[in-house]
């Protein structure tokens, strides 16, 4: 990536306003996981670019990676205002982002207005249907959520069912509906044995949160067998599992004291 930066910097030394070079520079920063600099570059392009919508999308997604919900929301609102000729696909995507922001801000009623509009534009928008299910969960409307999750599954071809099941499991998990999370993951473990690693770890984390160290450690042990007794960095740093792994010594001590 150093060579890519050098090549782009050379082009920008000749013309500092070269839009194509600036955009490549932004992508270089994204590859470096330097979202702040990438956003600064993309914002520099915005006033003159003919592809505003695409640049707004890059800015919004960069803020998502930074988990800056307020800036994602502000970017999406500005995106709608500055790009009046958006396609239906673009509109449904933006409304979905806005709904997600209100979900994170714990304003599900507000989010519901936007996700309903996204689904109205595209009735088969699976991501939007899943998101609406999550908003219903936040509103304690579990029956409505389950109906929407089933609808998302029914819209998915066989080779994409596993992806949707994991999305549903994560919806339950992030809203601390641990029993439903476990049930969903057991479905994955039983029906998709070659794709079960993440499900095992999610269940381990659920049992950690439910204060069942024996079951937590059992699922970790099953996951370790798949990973040849070694978890890589991406698993250890995953926010769904980090508290559990940080407490692993304590969990083992609790279990030993119970015996």
Folded structure, characterized:
The chain is an all-alpha fold and 259 residues long. Helix content is 76%, strand content 0%. The chain is built from 16 helices and no strands. It starts with a helix and ends with a helix.
Helix/strand order, N-terminal first = HHHHHHHHHHHHHHHH
> What is the beta-strand fraction?
under 5%
Distance between the termini: 53 Å
Number of strands: 0
Main β-sheet description? none
Unreliable segments (pLDDT under 50, ≥5 consecutive)?
none
Judging from the principal axes of the Cα atoms, what is the shape?
A: globular
Q: Helical region count?
A: 16
Structural class: mainly alpha
Q: Work out the helicity level.
A: over 70%
Mean pLDDT: 92
- Oligomerization state: single chain
Task: Give descriptors for this structure.
single chain, about 260 residues, mainly alpha, 16 helices, globular
Task: Please provide a brief summary of the model.
The chain has 259 residues and is an all-alpha fold. The longest helix is centred in the middle third of the chain and has 17 residues.
List the helices and strands and how they pair.
Elements: H1 2-14, H2 19-31, H3 35-45, H4 52-65, H5 69-82, H6 88-104, H7 108-121, H8 126-138, H9 142-154, H10 161-174, H11 178-191, H12 197-209, H13 213-226, H14 233-236, H15 242-246, H16 248-258
Helix pairs in contact: 1-2, 2-3, 3-4, 4-5, 5-6, 6-7, 6-8, 7-8, 8-9, 8-10, 10-11, 11-12, 12-13, 13-16
């Amino acid at each position: 990536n150093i060579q890519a930066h050098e090549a782009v910097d050379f082009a920008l030394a000749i013309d500092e306003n070269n839009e194509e070079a600036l955009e490549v520079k932004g992508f270089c920063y994204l590859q470096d996981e330097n979202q702040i600099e990438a956003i600064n570059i993309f914002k520099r392009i915005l006033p003159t670019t003919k592809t505003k919508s695409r640049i707004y999308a890059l800015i919004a997604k960069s803020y998502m990676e930074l988990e800056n919900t307020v800036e994602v929301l502000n970017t999406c609102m500005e995106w709608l205002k500055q790009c009046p000729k958006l396609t239906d696909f673009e509109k449904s995507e933006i409304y979905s982002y806005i709904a997600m922001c209100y979900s994170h801000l714990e304003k599900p009623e507000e989010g519901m207005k936007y996700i309903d509009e996204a689904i109205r534009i595209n009735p088969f928008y699976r991501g939007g249907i899943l998101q609406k299910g999550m908003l219903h969960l936040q509103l304690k409307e579990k029956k409505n959520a389950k109906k929407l999750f089933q609808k998302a599954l029914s819209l998915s071809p066989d080779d994409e069912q596993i992806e949707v099941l994991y999305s549903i499991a994560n919806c339950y998990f992030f809203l601390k509906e641990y029993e439903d999370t476990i049930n969903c993951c057991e479905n994955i473990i039983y029906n998709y044995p070659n794709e079960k690693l993440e499900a095992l770890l999610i269940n381990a984390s659920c049992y950690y949160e439910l204060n069942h160290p024996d079951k937590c450690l059992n699922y970790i042990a099953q996951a370790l067998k798949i990973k040849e007794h070694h978890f890589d960095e991406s698993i250890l740093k995953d926010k769904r599992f980090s508290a559990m792994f940080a407490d692993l010594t304590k969990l083992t001590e609790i279990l030993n004291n119970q015996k």
